[in-house]
Amino acid sequence: MIKSDFKRRRFSLLLSLVLLVQSTRGFSASLARNNNRLRRPTLHLIPLRTLYPKDESTINEQSCLNANFQLKSDPSFELCVVEEDDLPDTARFVVESFGSEAIRLSSDMTSFEQFILQPTVELLNGYSGIVAFAEVLAGLRSRVRGRLTQTMGIQGPHPAEEGAAGMALVLVLARPVPNDTKKMNWRIDIIGSVELRLQPCDAKIPFTLPWLDRIERRLWNKQTAVQQQPYLSNLCVAEAYRGQSIGRALVQCVEDIAGTVWGYSKIYLHVDVDNTAAYQLYTSAGYKDVGQRWNPFWAGSAAEIGYFVKDLP
Asked: What is the pLDDT of residues 162-184, one digit of tens each?
């Protein structure tokens, strides 16, 4: 998983509250669905196979996905494009995958110390989780708004197009939530997600909300014209399904779309080089360090996040 988006996350209480208010509709939608559980909805996602049909002969035999973008070990999971109603569950999955705990009690503490501190820690972590969900959901809505309001399918925006930052493509490997599931507040069961969008290739680690990127570039006086290129982010795989090469399959899928559908020859991403699993996944897939970092004086440890690129066939 890529953790760079989340290392930049909490920079003010005010922003957290704004994001929480902005995402009220997501909470309301989830509550409304909870009150209507007797009528379990079908999968509202758009199956990728309907937008991007593939021939069996073009599928990598080593891939965990078949020609219909279904998980070979469990075809009930299918790779799909998210729509508006799917964003709350997608945001919740991303937050759970990356983690949102603000505080963790040390294992060196005595049982009595943990007993005293645990209620406060749980309260703070609960607030942290709500803020994280609000921020991620608001960011997703901001980044896919343009795609949702247009009939784009999986086509990529023109780099010079106004609002290109709001036309991200978000894919999830998911299925309808079964009736006997414990996830009664979920509408879809997601085990993997990935996002593809255009991003200026200046090594800047993007905020969740695109307008914050514009502010930071102004603060850092980086307003020179920078070419926009495909950018891979928010690659997540549910812990119970790791080790099946799902992450690799999702990466290959967005690379294929960026090259054959969007028409680009390169794709970029950020990865924490200390995240061994993610680093090995990307380097083994052919990504190379650009050698450039976004390092304004306020960046802190985020300046150490690696910026990588891959040449697409």
From this structure: 678 889 999 999 998 876 666 66
Distances (CA, A) of 34 to 23, 31, 210, 295: 17, 5, 31, 45
Q: Three-state SS for 231? A: strand
Are the C-beta atoms of 83 and 74 separated by less than 8 Å?
no
Cα separation, 218 vs 241, in Å, equals: 41
The angle, 0 to 180 degrees and rounded to 10, between the axes of the packed helices 24-34 and 13-22 is: 50
CA 312 centroid distance within chain: 21
Closest listed residue to residue 196, CA positions, set 44, 70, 311, 81: 81
257 touches 48 (CB < 8 A): no
Rounded Cα gap, residues 52 and 34, in angstroms: 33
Number of H helices, E strands in the chain: 9, 9
Q: Which CATH class is domain 4-311?
A: alpha beta
CB 259 within 8 A of CB 312: yes
Helix (H), strand (E) at residue 92: helix 87-98
For residues 204 and 217, is the Cβ–Cβ distance under 8 A? yes
Number of Cβ atoms within 10 Å of the Cβ of 145: 17
Q: How confident is the model at residue 247 (pLDDT cuts 50, 70, 90)?
A: very high
Return phi, psi of residue 46, to 5°.
-95, 115
E strand segments, the chain: 46-47, 70-71, 74-81, 169-176, 188-200, 228-237, 266-271, 288-289, 306-311
Instruction: Decide: pTM greater than 0.85.
Output: no
Give Cα separations from 197 to 76, 250, 255 (angstroms). 27, 14, 11
* pLDDT score, position 181: 60
Domain ranges of the chain: 4-311
| Range of lowest pLDDT (1-5, 109-113, 272-276) | 1-5
Orientation angle between helical segments 87-98 and 111-148, nearest 10 degrees: 140
In contact, 137 and 91? CB cutoff 8 Å: yes
